[in-house]
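User: Some background: our group keeps a shared notebook of sequences we're curious about, and every so often someone picks one and asks for a predicted structure to add to the entry. Today it's my turn. The entry only has the sequence so far, pasted here. Could you supply the structure so I can complete it?
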Amino acid sequence: MGHRTHEVRCPKIRVLGLALVLAAAGTPAFGGSGFPDGGMHHGKFWKKSKVRHELQLTDDEVRTLEHIFARNQQTLTDLEADVERKKDELDTLFTLLIADERADEGKVLAQVDQLEQARARLGKARVTMVLEMRKVLTPGQRERLARLREKRHDEEENDHKD
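Assistant: Of course. Here's the predicted structure to add to the notebook entry:
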């Protein structure tokens, strides 16, 4: 009975895993993809030869993924820059708050809200792109991609233990 519950939840977990691996590929907006095969492809997992081979991506699938990425790139870059601006503004306000007891705590808290809203917009844009990319992949490709990501995550965890 418990096994059946796992089967029902597993696709949702895989989708979430794929979304996280692509959407939160790193900072800046197009950071490393976290997949094996060396080199940085700025979140473009389909550019990594080992991943492409493992997923058996066709040239059409690669072109479609590249098109989706290119179409979203400027928006993601702009949203990432907005997050960075908001972080800088918050750092400035926070420094003033520490240095001067008369500083306006309300302004700092309002800036925290603005920063979190900017991060949410960036995260939503990333996930929206990933959901579109997900439609390009077959269920088998998504499953293999999730396994590759898990393997990479486990390897990184083990490296940090040493």
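Suggested note for the entry: Residues 2-9, 11-41 have pLDDT under 50 and may be disordered. Residues 2-26+40-151 form a domain with the Four Helix Bundle (Hemerythrin (Met), subunit A) fold (CATH 1.20.120).
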